[in-house]
Amino acid sequence: MEARGTPEEARRSSADSDVGFPAYPGCGDNNNSQHHYGNAADLVFSTVSLCTIALAARDAGFSGIFGPGYPGHDDHTHVDSRLENDDDGVNPAVVWRAPSCGI
Ligand SMILES: [Zn+2]
């Protein structure tokens, strides 16, 4: 992929790539990333903190959450439904990693 600038540019760039949903740089590079299955999103809201997003995602039942405090995730909160993905070849699991948010 080409070099990227701002996160917004990265989102626009990744929207045209093989990543199913907009992904931040490095989030979705893994060949088995949930982004490649179209069931992941990287979220940022200007008026809501990343931890608020992570906690809301936990309460909403997302099985994959990576946010502040997890390497590469201090500028967005990644959410996915990996538990429901039977095509990724990994054992079904809930994985929450946002240690700065207490998750
Ligand atoms: Zn992501």
UniProtKB/TrEMBL annotation:
Q: Where is the composition biased (Basic and acidic residues)?
A: 1-15
The portions of this protein that span the membrane are none
Region ranges (Disordered): 1-32
Annotated InterPro entries:
Peptidase_M15A_C, Zn_M74/Hedgehog-like
The Peptidase M15A C-terminal domain extends over 28-80
Mention any Pfam family matching this sequence.
Peptidase_M15_3
Its name, as the record gives it, is: Peptidase M15A C-terminal domain-containing protein
From what organism does this protein derive? Kribbella sandramycini
